[in-house]
Amino acid sequence: MSTLPTYEKVGYAMGDAAANLVWRGALAYLAVFYTDTFGLTAAAAAMLFLVVRLSDGVTDIIMGMIADRTSTRWGKFRPWILISTPFLALFMVLCFTTPDLSDQNKLIYAYVTYIGLTLAYTLNNVPYSALMGVMTASDTERTSLSGFRFAGAFGGGLLVMGFLPDLVAYFGAGDDSKGYQYSMYLFAAILMALMVITFVTTKERVTPTIDQSSKLSTELKDLFKNLPFIILPLLATTLFFYYRNLYSAAFFFLVMALMWFVIKRLINQDTTSISRTQRDMVDLLTNKPWLILLGMGFLTMMFNGIKYGVIAYYFKYQVGDELMAGQYFVALLLVSILGALSTSYLSKIWGKRNLFIISLLLSGLLTAGFYWVPDGNIVAIFSLGCAAEFFAAMMPTLFFSMLGDSADYSEWKNGRRATGLIYSAGTFVQKTGGGFAGALVLVVLAGYGYDGMDSSTIAASLPGMKLLLSWIPAGFAFAGVILMLFYPLGCRQNQEIGEELAKRRNTLAPA
């Protein structure tokens, strides 16, 4: 298992630097843009975030299936990165454009452009994430590559999160709607340049056997027949999350009980009597490491997404210095780069599973400490935030590296490898977690009476902002600690699985 050249790791990292101009950067300001500049109510924006995430449940899985069955001279995944880049840049700009429309038409515009952005991101990031799983067969190299990736991700986020408030003030000269739009023109150009670097510098080396027993069109039809089993749990969760009443709770538990019955029946069926799409689902549903990672992806995105989603509000209203939010983001993201790059080294000492637990526990405790920080104590805010972020940065780095391990486990156990599907589920659950995190921020603020266009509502919402920066996200970190205790793959198991798969591939390789 050869070592990847440094230039290729850096080139791969540029792709997530580009994607995180959108994901970690622009979307960190989207909620406050919608409520304070675009003119949506907090409740309407929360519902927007939730509804749009429902579409991701379908599109991510479809994209994973398509990518797994793509075969070109550039590979399975790299061509999609290049094709999707112009659309991602376009919708990034459109999402932060404020047209002269009625309130109702503005809401429609926000739905159309935000859905467009998530679709473009799916086309780009599902193949990009899966690319890590085929660049190398070494689990230790994947951890190193994941560290480079998230160093790039945090660097890309730093550009937007650190400098967007100042750029909005510079380009807008008092007109925030103009300032946001012109700033996005700049970031869109940077995004396209970085994505091209990733396409040119990376190479796909792991080439699993392609199952040609059925056509993609047939499998997509099969997928759409099974859509209710994907959409219903998401719909039930969304309704329960948003309305939180007896009816939504009853619907949620009814749907979950039905899904449990259907899944148990599907797993117990003879695999020769079901379609390939259903076999893929059975492989995933019997893959314990993947199932645990699916939960971890959601919990860690809730943890990180809530913290990042409330920062702009916290500094604008609790601290009283809106531009300082940019400085805080810069500090967090510089520490994040160090945390991401430290992950590979620390995982060799403690193992991925143990390091994940340590990072969740320490970051959760430090985040909870925000509850006792006195208002306006900038030194305490920056110190506590940076300390928590160092460990939080390890979470996505470990998550995507361990998804590759779960793909190895699936191939070792079942003789089949659906790298794109495994990673698409990972990106989907992260995007779902991010959507729910952004919505939860707005739901809590709306519960405290917040209205971004009415300054008289601000004082009553300040306690909610403090909870959103402390105990609420910390609760998701502590839940992650409990879940991670059940993760079954350690260093020895990963090494044994990797060696066994290498032997199988060598046996099947043409002489």
What does this structure look like?
The chain has about 500 residues and is an all-alpha fold. It has one domain: Growth Hormone, Chain: A. It contains 19 helices and no strands. It has helices at about 5-40, 40-70, 80-95, 105-135, 140-170, 175-200, 215-225, 230-245, 245-270, 275-285, 290-320, 325-350, 350-370, 380-390, 395-415, 420-445, 460-470, 470-485, 490-510. Helix 2 runs parallel beside helix 4. The mean pLDDT is about 80.
What would the keywords be for this entry?
511 residues; mainly alpha; Growth Hormone, Chain: A; 81% helix; 0% strand; globular; membrane; MFS transporter
Please provide a brief summary of the model.
The protein is an all-alpha fold. Helix content is 81%, strand content 0%.
Task: Give me the secondary-structure topology.
Elements: H1 6-38, H2 42-68, H3 78-95, H4 103-135, H5 139-172, H6 176-201, H7 216-225, H8 228-243, H9 246-268, H10 276-285, H11 288-319, H12 324-350, H13 352-368, H14 378-392, H15 394-414, H16 419-447, H17 458-469, H18 471-484, H19 491-508
Helix pairs in contact: 1-3, 1-4, 1-5, 1-6, 1-11, 2-4, 2-8, 2-16, 3-4, 3-6, 4-15, 4-16, 5-6, 5-12, 5-15, 8-9, 11-12, 11-15, 11-16, 11-17, 11-18, 12-13, 12-14, 13-14, 13-15, 13-18, 15-16, 15-19, 16-17
Pfam families: MFS_2
Transmembrane segments: 38-56, 77-96, 108-126, 147-164, 184-202, 223-243, 249-268, 289-315, 327-347, 354-372, 378-400, 421-448, 468-487
Family: Belongs to the sodium:galactoside symporter (TC 2.A.2) family.
